[in-house]
Specification:
The complex is a heterodimer of chains A (about 220) and B (about 1000).
Chain A: H1 3-25, H2 27-30, H3 40-62, H4 73-100, H5 109-122, H6 124-131, H7 135-141, H8 150-169, H9 186-209, H10 211-218
Helix pairs in contact in A: 1-3, 1-9, 3-5, 3-6, 4-5, 5-9, 6-8, 8-9
Chain B: E1 2-4, H1 5-27, E2 68-73, H2 78-81, H3 84-89, H4 91-99, E3 102-108, H5 115-124, H6 131-134, H7 147-153, E4 158-163, H8 165-169, E5 176-180, H9 190-196, H10 199-204, E6 210-215, H11 217-225, H12 232-254, E7 262-267, H13 282-285, E8 286-293, E9 307-310, H14 314-322, H15 344-365, H16 373-393, H17 399-427, H18 432-451, H19 453-456, E10 462-464, H20 470-493, H21 499-502, H22 505-535, H23 537-545, H24 549-564, H25 568-572, H26 574-606, H27 611-635, H28 638-646, H29 648-667, H30 682-687, H31 692-711, H32 716-735, H33 754-780, H34 785-806, H35 812-833, H36 837-854, H37 878-906, H38 914-939, H39 946-983
Parallel strand pairs in B: 2-6, 2-7, 3-9, 4-5, 4-6
Antiparallel strand pairs in B: 1-10, 3-8, 7-8
The chains are: A mainly alpha (about 220), B mainly alpha (about 1000).
Bound molecules: zinc ion (2 copies).
One zinc ion binds near residues 74, 75, 115, 219 and 268 of chain B.
């Protein structure tokens, strides 16, 4: 267990949390009638953009997968396009799953799709930054006892937390309270965001707590 | 005493059914009624008198109106008359309301807003109990005291045209009648024309005293297209012209008769925003009530909002209007506006009669009735009434007399209001004692089931019932003693009617002994478990971490569903819960599948120790293929198998997604629940008359698909029977006009399809008979497990055929998809992922629940498809109708349960205990929600939505529990054989 690695990861997580929080407050300075509930669609765009940018910065500054060797420019470009395609695929996949869960097919397509984008920016973009467009590696990380490093663990925790948060977020929708946040997809995106933030905060703590068991396992 | 798990589960569920019945008996209170059944004019009280002067008016007052027309429009909502729609489409009525001699009210109906209880409320003035809704399927004669009976006794001639529910409620009461059936909901013109065509004749004649018209068209329009449909306007206009016709005819007659006549325009219930009714929303509850008579004072043209009254007030008003005794069970109060034009003495007399009747009713239903506010007020009013009479008889005619009269009137009105409300309170009383006995039984059974999980799901699959533990004797007798003492105390002290006290003491003692025995068993099992767990404390840690994500999901889902029943919206929208859970389950299966195919190799690279395991797995897979191959060879479809084996990986990977897509499609077929029911769905599109050709094609394809999907595992005879049966289903649908034959474009000769339906019934019985015969054969001759599997499959296909006959035609899609899903799951998922019996049972249960809602069911009474109970029957026959309706409603869960039985018993060559485990799990998973719901309902018994949301759900749960107990009996019957075989 590398203490410095853990510290670097925690700082990265803090930045992610700050990005999410700022995405709610900063736009009110520039845009007039912006509010989380009122103009939810624009918030969805802004939040996903912020999170993706922070993840890319993360990749550039902290270099979590340091083992990858320096590669040529063409290779990098190739990787970039591949990542974009992966991201798009994941958006459509999430969209499909959300529709399967009962979201209307034709009505409010924009809402559903932007929610899918938000989910993919919480999950897929992080995977892309940490693991690269390398599908076998993803499968390895998301299988039982497949995590080999601190980063893998944090990835597991945040991804699961965001997805579970979105899943739980669907629960208040059938209630007859008539609150503005029960409108599709606000409660779900709220759930996903809260799940993501909680995941970010929990991951370092959980890893710190289990550090002995983890070092044993990763060998 | 050692008991096999399946026997234990079966017994537990049966006992729980008993507990549930006891609970329901206590929960649905008997309605307030008086002991003597019908009031007669001999019981009429004289006018109150004071010392010194006594009135000579002891007879019943004469009728106020010569003729009364009750003009009942089904599902007439308040705003159809008073709102903008009424102003636009009912010009004559609007004119009457503004300038004519009318009194207008909003009459509030009580839930359940269904036609039959509302008619009862209108005619008896009482509030029928919730159980009347269930009896709506079966409207027997109304035996309570009611206006119609009284009118007939008084020698009045009553003419009735309209909904034939009335004729069933009041047989032989009408001197002339013509009933229209509300059975064909899609018809909204013919039903009303059948009423209107008699009008000209009857209005010309003069030989009747009471005319009742019940128009159903508006209700049918509501059910078909909702309250905002373009059909509503013309229908209201039609009703308006009918009203004009009646009103003008009566007025022309009045010129030569001195006594005026009365028209009562009312609705039985309203209509929700989706067009249905049954609940207690404002739209469903508020109905208009307009009294039209030339005797009333002309209105000044000021249109104020109509006063809100109770629907039960109509009955006493009608009784007084017709000069009849007020029905004994009536809770209502006379509407003072109707008697305004009468003299003060008569008015006071009417209110005195009404108050007296309410007091008598209260006296019979409340022990401490003398202390009731209403009764005290009434006594006071009666006294001042006596004083007034004295003054009146003395010939006083001064101003003070009128003022005093007005004061007495006010006193009477207040007293009546109080009496009415305290009677209303009586109705909501629960029989807590019976309820708690039922709840205790259910709870103890649940504890027993939960505590015996470890041993019942062990490899031996039996449970040791500690009948002779040392604790047993002392504790048992102590508990018996205490409970009997409680019983005596409760039953001697309670003022209210209590069901459990009314049963014989020997039976009560037996039940008490049973309860204490159960609790002793539970306690000693708990003690044993604690002792055991102290020994193996360390072992338990590892058991929890061995849980897969699927186990966790199944556990969380079950618990989550149970908890969700605490919120009324989650009960209304329960289908969402199940769709959500099954969806998540499919995703979990997809993830497991991915892991199986993509990950096994990776792990192998890392760890060579797992190599062996995968080798074993490979061997196991080969074995599965072999068995499949054998099976399939016999079924002569090797081509499909070849394909399946070749692309097994991809088919297996895709199958969860296919199931997900099927679920999504089924969701759009029938919208249920409350919030989203108005969304357009595919089912409505199909059943609308313009799409008959599409529906016919779909039905034909579905029937063929059903045949293809189930014929494979049947014997030859049942295959043939199945084909004929499915053909018969199409003929039946064509005969009643739901689908078309390709050769005849428009068939006008509609029948009830009785011959066709009976033709199908014969094949259903035939297939069930062969299936049972095969099962029995396999029970006697132990050699052939295949016969048993075939037998079970035949029973299953018999039920499928019955469901195909009973389902609404567009729902055949549900049946086909059900079969498709079951085939996919059993061929590609459960076999490959090696789930154990418990997991498979829970998954079956979840899918069964989801299919319950896919069929279009919900937790409100209004979605029960009553027409299923009439298939193949000429008239209403109670037992088959109830059975068929119940089967059609619960066919989703039932078919999945039988499929589970078939699947598990075909798995028994792997583990001999699968059926026992499955049965046990099924019992546990049914028992948990039922018990928790009983406790929740007890806690929520004063909740606002108790009648509209929680009570229907309780009935649904009770019937589901009853059916599950039947399923468990089937499981046990099949499993018993298995155990004796393994012993051999
Ligand atoms: Zn009705
Ligand atoms: Zn209706």
């Amino acid at each position: 267990m590398d203490e410095t690695e853990l510290r670097r990861m925690s700082t990265g997580h803090v930045f992610c949390v700050i990005a999410v929080v700022l995405s709610i407050y900063i736009p009110t300075l520039f845009l007039d009638d912006f509010s989380f509930l009122g103009t939810h669609l624009s918030w969805l765009c802004i939040c996903s953009l912020c999170v993706i940018i922070v993840h890319i910065l993360f990749l550039l500054t902290l270099k979590p997968n340091a083992s990858s060797k320096k590669s040529s420019l063409a290779n990098k470009f190739n990787k970039l396009t591949k990542s974009c395609i992966y991201f798009l695929i994941s958006c459509f996949l999430f969209h499909g799953i959300i529709v399967l869960y009962g979201a209307p097919l034709v009505e409010s397509v924009a809402e559903t799709f932007l929610f899918a984008v938000l989910l993919s920016s919480f999950t897929t973009s992080r995977c892309l930054c940490l693991l690269g467009p390398n599908f076998p590696a993803w499968v390895r990380v998301f299988s039982k006892d497949g995590a080999l490093s601190v980063w893998d663990h944090s990835l597991q925790i945040t991804t699961v937390c965001s997805v579970v948060g979105a899943w739980l977020g669907a629960f208040p929708i059938p209630l007859d309270w008539d609150r503005p946040w029960q409108v599709w997809p606000i409660s779900c995106s709220l759930g996903a965001t809260i799940g993501y933030v909680v995941g970010l905060l929990i991951a370092p703590l959980w890893i710190y707590w289990n550090r002995k068991r983890l070092t044993y396992k990763s060998r | 005493m050692k008991v096999s798990s399946s026997v234990l589960a079966c017994c537990c569920l049966l006992i729980q059914v008993f507990g549930m019945m006891l609970f329901i008996r206590g929960f649905f209170p008997a309605p307030v009624r008086s002991q003597s059944r019908k009031s007669t004019s001999a019981q009429i009280p004289p006018e109150p008198a004071t010392a010194g002067a006594s009135s000579n008016w002891t007879t019943h007052p004469p009728p106020l109106f010569k003729k009364v027309v009750i003009f009942l429009i089904d599902a007439l909502r308040q705003d159809f008359v008073y709102g903008p729609k009424g102003k636009e489409h009912m010009p004559y009525l609007t004119q009457l309301l503004e300038k004519g001699t009318t009194h207008s009210f909003i009459a509030k109906a009580t839930a359940p807003t269904v036609t039959m209880p509302r008619i009862k409320a209108l005619m008896t003035g009482s509030i029928p109990g919730f159980m009347d809704v269930v009896m709506n399927l079966n409207s027997h004669e109304l035996l309570d005291d009611n206006v119609i009976w009284q009118a007939k006794q008084a020698g009045k001639r009553i003419v009735f045209y309209g909904d034939d529910t009335w004729i069933r409620l009041f047989p032989k009461h009408f001197s002339e009648y013509d009933g229209t059936t509300s059975f064909f909901v899609s018809d909204y013109t013919e039903v009303d024309n059948n009423v209107t065509r008699h009008l000209d004749d009857i209005l010309r004649r003069n030989d009747w005293d009471m005319l009742i018209l019940h128009y159903l068209g508006l209700d049918h329009i509501g059910h078909l297209t909702g309250p905002h449909s373009h059909l509503v306007g013309p229908k209201l206009l039609e009703m308006d012209t009918v009203l004009r016709k009646i009103s003008i005819a009566l007025m022309s007659q009045e010129e030569d008769i001195s006594v005026p006549s009365l028209i009562v325009l009312c609705g039985d219930h309203g209509m929700s925003e989706t067009g249905s009714h049954g609940g207690s929303s404002e739209e469903e509850v508020q109905t208009p009530l307009v009294l039209i008579s030339s005797a009333f004072e002309k209105k000044g043209g000021t249109s104020k909002l109509p006063e809100i009254v109770q629907q039960t007030d109509i009955a006493p008003t009608l009784a007084i209007s017709l000069g009849l005794p007020i029905s004994q069970n009536s809770l209502g109060m006379l509407l003072p506006q109707t008697v305004e034009h009468k003299s003060m003495r008569e008015q006071l007399r009417f209110f005195h009669l009404n108050g007296h009747q309410l007091c008598m009713l209260l006296k019979q239903n409340l022990e401490a009735y003398e202390k009731d506010d209403g009764v005290e007020l009434f006594r006071k009013a009666e006294k001042s009434h006596g004083n007034w009479i004295k003054l009146y008889l003395e010939g006083n005619t001064s101003e003070t007399l009128t003022n005093l009269g007005k004061k007495v009137l006010k006193q009477y009105l207040e007293a009546l209001k109080n009496l009415s409300s305290s009677l209303g309170k009586q109705i909501a009383e629960y029989d807590i004692y019976s309820m708690s006995i039922g709840a205790v039984i259910a709870l103890e059974i649940l504890f027993l089931l939960l505590l015996s999980i470890p041993s019942a799901l062990s490899s031996q699959a039996h449970f040791d019932v500690p009948l002779s533990s040392p604790l047993f004797s002392l504790l048992f007798y102590m508990m018996c003693l205490v409970l009997s003492a409680i019983h005596v105390i409760v039953c001697t002290s309670s003022e209210k009617v209590c069901f459990f006290c009314s049963i014989s003491w020997a039976l009560a003692l037996g039940i008490m002994m049973f309860i204490s025995a159960l609790s002793c068993i539970v306690l000693s099992t708990l003690g044993k478990m604690l002792a055991k767990s102290q020994c193996h404390n360390k072992k338990q840690d590892s058991t929890f971490s061995g849980w897969s994500e699927l186990d966790l999901l199944l556990l969380i889902g079950t618990l989550g569903h149970v908890l969700s029943m605490g919120a009324s919206s989650f009960i209304e929208e329960e289908h969402q819960t199940w769709y959500f859970l099954t969806n998540t389950l499919c995703l979990a299966l997809a993830q497991e599948m991915c892991r199986k195919y993509f990950l096994v190799k990776k792990v192998n690279l890392l760890d060579s120790a797992q190599d062996e395991e995968s080798k074993n797995e490979g061997l196991y897979m080969d074995k599965i293929y072999d068995t499949h191959k054998k099976e399939m060879k016999e079924q002569t479809i090797p081509l499909l198998l070849q394909f399946a084996k070749h692309y097994e990986k991809w088919i297996a990977l895709l199958s969860p997604w296919a199931i997900l897509i099927i679920c999504r499609l089924l969701r759009t077929l029938n919208q249920t629940g409350i919030q989203w029911i108005h969304r357009p769905d595919f089912g409505h599109w199909l059943t609308s008359s313009e799409h008959k050709a599409e529906l016919s094609f779909l039905v034909a394809v579905c029937l063929i698909m059903i045949f293809i999907l189930i014929q494979g595992r049947c014997s030859f005879i049942s295959k043939v029977a199945l084909a004929f049966g499915l053909l018969g289903v199409y003929c039946y649908r064509a005969a009643i006009g739901h689908v078309l034959y390709p050769w005849s474009k428009n068939s006008n000769s509609l029948s009830q399809g009785i011959t066709e339906a009976r033709f199908v019934y014969i094949f259903v019985l035939g297939i069930l008979f062969t299936g049972t015969k095969d099962l029995l054969k396999s029970q006697v001759i132990y050699t052939d497990p295949r016969t048993k599997s075939v037998g079970l499959w035949e029973v299953y296909s018999g039920f499928i055929l019955l469901a195909a006959l009973l389902y609404r035609p567009h729902n055949l899609v549900v049946l086909v998809f059900c079969l498709l899903m079951q085939t996919t799951l059993s061929m590609f998922i459960w076999n490959l992922l090696k789930h154990d019996a418990a997991q498979i049972t829970i998954m079956h249960y979840w899918f069964g629940q989801a299919f319950f809602f896919f069929q279009g069911n919900s937790n409100t009474i209004s979605t029960v498809d009553i027409s299923a109970g009439f298939v193949g029957l000429e008239s209403y026959v109670e037992l088959p109708a109830i059975f068929l309706t119940m089967f059609a409603t619960y066919s989703g869960p039932l078919l999945w349960a039988i499929h589970l039985l078939w699947y598990l018993s075909s798995e028994t060559n792997r583990f001999s205990t699968t059926v026992a485990h499955g049965c046990y799990c099924y019992a546990v998973i049914r028992s948990i929600p039922v018990t928790v719901y009983i406790i929740l309902v007890t806690a929520f018994r004063y909740h606002l939505f108790i009648w509209s949301v929680f009570s229907p759900k309780l009935l649904y749960e009770a019937i589901h529990l009853f059916i599950s107990a039947g399923v468990c009996v089937m499981f046990t019957a099949v499993d018993k054989n298995q155990i004796s075989k393994s012993e051999n």
